[in-house]
Amino acid sequence: MLNSLTLIIPGLLLRFWTTGYIGKISRAPSISADYLVVKGPYRFFRHPLYLGNFALVAGVLVALKPSLIMAFAVLLGYLIMYRLIARAETEYLEQSNPEPKETGFNIIEALSEWRTWLVTGTALGLGLLKAFWLVKR
């Protein structure tokens, strides 16, 4: 379980940091942008939310310990899906050419990530239950 936390905690922190800069637009069902965020994690990564998501997915896989084929399929599916999303977002930004904006960190926006914490906590709980059940056998 500790191995999974080395992926999950940085993933959660990266998502928290990122959402504090990008805000609600990151949860919109369609691609849109009034401006281009250029501060915070966006100084270092083009898609920091997806990097955080990848760490979360990998960490949950480590916690749940699925078969190697299942873990590979999940990671491959994640990479394909988010690569397509990132490409679509990049194309949208290139076409719409939004102005760069140096937004500051907004703690209220960052705290709206409670759903990510809930889902990750649930997955970790399942991992703990699985580990406990395997030890009892």
Describe this structure as you would to a colleague.
This protein has 137 residues and is mostly helical. It has one domain (2-136). The protein has five helices and two strands; from the N terminus they run αβααβαα. It has helices at 2-22, 48-64, 68-96, 107-111, 114-136, and strands at 36-37, 100-101. It has a two-stranded parallel ribbon with strand order 1-2. The longest helix has 29 residues, at 68-96. It starts with a helix and ends with a helix.
What order do the helices and strands come in, and which of them pair?
Layout: H1 2-22, E1 36-37, H2 48-64, H3 68-96, E2 100-101, H4 107-111, H5 114-136
Parallel strand pairs: 1-2
Give me some keywords for this one:
137 residues, mainly alpha, two-stranded parallel sheet
